[in-house]
């Protein structure tokens, strides 16, 4: 059987194969570096997002605390004003409380 020479010498197929292997190695190294960079950027983005979310959460918590303290203060002030009105008009306050209790008792009796 005769071998057909297609313009390549005996050393050419080996050299060509080595060149292809080197090219594949370079491509895989580049791919590995690109994937590593991608993961690095993704983790950095995730950390940045987590920091931003934590900051927003802390701000929201401070707002809730501030509003709660404000409502607590206003409630305390209203209670003191109510107490002052009762001490200024004790008879009137007792009559109002008795009337409200009487009406509630009548309403509750009709429901039963």
Describe the secondary-structure layout.
Elements: H1 11-88, H2 90-111
Helix pairs in contact: 1-2
Core attributes:
mainly alpha, 112 residues
Describe the structure.
α1 (about 10-90) packs across α2. The protein contains two helices and no strands. It has helices at about 10-90, 90-110. The model has no long low-confidence stretch (mean pLDDT about 80). Helix content is about 90%, strand content about 0%. The longest helix is centred in the middle third of the chain and has 78 residues, at about 10-90. It has a domain at about 10-85. By secondary structure, it is an all-alpha fold.
What Rg, in angstroms, do the CA atoms define? 43 Å
Total number of beta strands: 0
Which residues sit in consecutive blocks of at least 5 with pLDDT less than 50? none
Range of strand content = under 5%
Give the SSE string. Answer: HH
Helix content: over 70%
The end-to-end span amounts to 114 Å
Counting DSSP H or I runs of 4 or more residues, the number of helices is 2
Quick overview:
With 112 residues, the chain is mainly α. The chain has helices spanning 11-88, 90-111.
């Amino acid at each position: 059987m005769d071998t057909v020479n297609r313009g390549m010498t005996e050393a050419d197929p080996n050299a060509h194969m080595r060149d292809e292997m080197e090219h594949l190695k370079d491509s895989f190294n580049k791919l590995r570096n690109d994937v590593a960079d991608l993961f690095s950027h993704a983790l950095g983005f995730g950390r940045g997002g987590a920091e931003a979310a934590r900051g927003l959460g802390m701000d929201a918590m401070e707002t809730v605390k501030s509003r709660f303290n404000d409502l607590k203060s206003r409630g305390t002030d209203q209670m003191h004003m109510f107490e002052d009105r009762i001490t200024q008009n004790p008879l009137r306050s007792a009559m109002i409380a008795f009337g409200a209790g009487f009406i509630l008792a009548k309403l509750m009796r009709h429901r039963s």
